[in-house]
Structures are given as C-alpha cells and as structure tokens.
Amino acid sequence: MSSTIKEALRRASFCLKQAGYGNHSGEAEALLIASLGVTRAWLYAHGEEKPEAAELRHYFAWVARRIAGEPYAYLVGEKEFMSLSFLVTPVVLIPRPETELLVETAVREFAGRENLRILDVGTGSGAVAISIAVLLPKSEVVAVDISPAVLNVATQNAARHNVTDRVRFLAGDLYAPVSRERFDAVVSNPPYISSTDIETLQRDVKVYEPHLALNGGPDGLDFYRRLTAELDALAALPALLLFEVGYGQAEAVADLCCAAGYKNISRLNDLAGIPRIVLAKPAGKA
Known about the structure:
The protein has 286 residues and is an alpha/beta fold. The protein has 2 domains: 5-68, Orthogonal Bundle (Helicase, Ruva Protein, domain 3), CATH 1.10.8; 92-281, Vaccinia Virus protein VP39 (Rossmann fold, 3-Layer(aba) Sandwich), CATH 3.40.50.150. Helices cover 38% and strands 17% of the residues. It is built from 11 helices and 9 strands. A hairpin with a 5-residue loop joins β8 and β9 (275-281). α1 crosses α2 and α10 runs parallel beside α11. The longest helix has 15 residues, at 53-67. The model has no long low-confidence stretch (mean pLDDT 95).
C-alpha cells in the first residue's frame, strides 16, 4: 500500500524513535529530503503527495541502514565541511566540525602570503587540503595518504572544488612520498584514538568508519611521534606544524613538537573548550 510523504515520515520517525534516536523526526526528514533529492520547503509543500513505490523502497532501505547504525554521511554520500560539500564513502573518515579549526588556523596564519607550499599528511577525503587550497588561492598543497582508495575520493573532491591544479595527491607513508621537498607548513589530523579505546566508540564510528583513520596506537600518540621525529626526511624544518589532537593529548603532542625543535607552541580550544589544535613554530618565530 502506498504512503503519502507525511505518512512515510511518521512511519520512519517512529522506527527511528524505537531504535533510540533522539532527533528521530529530524533524522527521518533529512533522509527523505536526500533520498528524494528535494528541498525541505518542497517536502512541506507536498506532504499529501504519494511518492513512487521505488522511491519509498529506497527511502525505507536507508532508514533501515540508519537504524543499524550506518552514518548519515555514508548513506547520502557527502558531508559539508567549511561550507563546502565533500564526497564521502566508507573508505574515508567523515569530516568533523572540530577539524574546521585546523583549517581556520592555517588560513589565519598564512593570510595574504604568496607562494606557499603546505603539506597535509593523512589527507583522507581531502577536506583539509582542499579547503586550505580554496581559502588560500595562492598556495600549493601536497596531500599524502597511505591508501590509494582514499586518494581516489580525495581526487574527486579536488575536481569538485576546482583545485586540481593546486592540490597534488601522493600515495605513501607519511613523509616518504615528499622526501627532500620543502614546505612552509605541515598540517595533519592523524589517527589519534588509542587502540584500547576503539571498542568504546559509538557504534556508527566503531563499526562503519575506517579504523585505519582512527587507530593511533596504544596511547593514541603513535602518529604524532612519527610526524615530529621524521621531519628530517624533508629538505628543511617547516616554519609551522599544525596538528589536530584528541582529548587530553595536547600537552604530550606539544612536548613532541618541542623535542623536534619547535619552541613557540600554542594550544587552541575547540567550541567545547577542549584543547584541539597544537600550533608549533621554531624558536624565534612569532
């Protein structure tokens, strides 16, 4: 039996509520908007219309997958970041709002500068690298990731935002693909969840998002150790290190930066008041 849009929304909302979703009505509405490819205004204006049976099957298949815990971004295939839309698939970590602070800080530090070369290590979807390239139009960004499948997604995102001429993607482990190259800054949002904490993550993260992009080793600091200790692979120390860090990690990461020769170190809080970004410059750099 066919349903109107209003009836489909009520049914989906009830199912999501039974599954424990607090914002069940909002979830149901967002999924239907994306499934039908319409606007919220259109949805409200056509509540008594009956979608095609195939459209309803597609919608309720999405609802079932959401009830199972699959993230909304993977269902619809995209995520907004820095007011830009990025393709996301299950091979890449879904961009988080708190990571926008990493981009905002880089843009603030380099505003007005020309001929910049910035390295993004562990680029994932390319959200950080591409956003920096969009907001710093006189910069060149090199983005590295160990996964060719991930770089395929990032390359599509660069094309989506018309920065393929200024963002270069390289496959490899940390600094290996850019050995002996020179950069003004290294930015990174590396895996920083401790391996013992992976099982405590919410189901939608633990089950569906790539552990390669989450697991930072026994204490979550493995990649920060390498990011700071292996800087001699580059032609010279970058003038800026900019790292996103997990809860309670800022001081340990700052110490690693200090040991690598960066004495001017700042910690920046996210909107929740959590130290989220470590910004490090060599001694004498303001």
